[in-house]
Design brief:
By secondary structure, the chain is mostly beta strands. Helices cover 0% and strands 50% of the residues. It contains no helices and 17 strands. Strands 1, 5, 6, 8, 13, 14, 15 and 17 form an eight-stranded antiparallel beta sheet that branches. It has a seven-stranded antiparallel beta sheet with strand order 2-7-16-9-10-11-12, with no helix packed on it. The radius of gyration is 16 Å and the shape is globular. 40% of the residues are buried. The N terminus is likely disordered.
């Protein structure tokens, strides 16, 4: 799937050696994260920052027919390792797809700069998810490599991981590597993002809870 984040162009900060986010406060830490807000002309989606909330030590993303939710890290990295403890609510409406991804520092550099969708869920039962790497094909248009699907009960807490290096991208669940990409590896600065995309007619809400994020690079 193509993900266009035109609302976060220019996010930047000095790369950090390692960061952990436990979401212990009552709102996003604005020194490390930004929530999308406004209309995205490229995708036709309405992003609502108010639907990204922090309470009880958890970041909750909620999307419904009124709008979708997404947050992005302000730290740019070239190569990184990240782990995210998360669970996905059911029932989940059709037309909404949660995505954990790395997106280029500058929106205008896509697809040439690539995109790593290391978790993308179309399964409304939340029993499986997929993964893609996007890149510019020979014509310069978006192309992608697909890892296939990994089956796991996403309604329970699991740790979803990625390790991105110059030679490969590994994706994992609870420490188990389930796919390794070795082609079309992005080689420029990117930032971590979590979002729920609208992919069609929305029949009900979708929610994701994130307990913590650990990232280094």
């Amino acid at each position: 799937m193509v993900v266009l984040l035109v609302l976060v162009a220019g996010c930047s900060s000095a790369p950090a050696p390692g960061e952990s986010e436990e979401f212990d406060g009552s709102s996003l830490d604005s020194t490390h994260w930004t929530a999308y807000d406004g209309f995205n002309r490229a995708s036709g989606e309405t992003w609502r920052a108010a639907q990204c909330t922090v309470s009880g030590g958890v970041l909750k993303l909620r999307a419904d027919s009124s709008g979708v939710c997404g947050v992005a890290s302000l730290t740019q990295r070239t190569y990184a390792k990240a782990e995210v403890r998360a669970r996905f609510s059911v029932p989940a409406g059709q037309g909404l797809a949660p995505v954990f991804l790395y997106w280029p520092e500058n929106d205008g550099d896509w697809p040439q700069a690539g995109e790593i969708d290391w978790l993308e869920c179309y399964d409304t039962s939340r029993q499986s998810f997929g993964s893609w790497i996007h890149y510019a094909g020979l014509s310069g248009a978006d192309d992608s490599d697909n890892a296939g699907d990994f089956r796991v009960d996403m309604t329970q807490w699991h740790t979803y991981g990625i390790e991105w290096s110059a030679s490969q991208v590994q994706v994992s669940v609870d420490g188990q590597v389930w796919h390794v990409y070795t082609a079309h590896i992005p080689r420029g600065p990117m930032h971590l993002a979590f979002q729920i995309d609208r992919i069609g007619a929305v029949t009900g809400p979708a929610e994701v809870e994130i307990d913590w994020v650990h990232e280094s690079g």
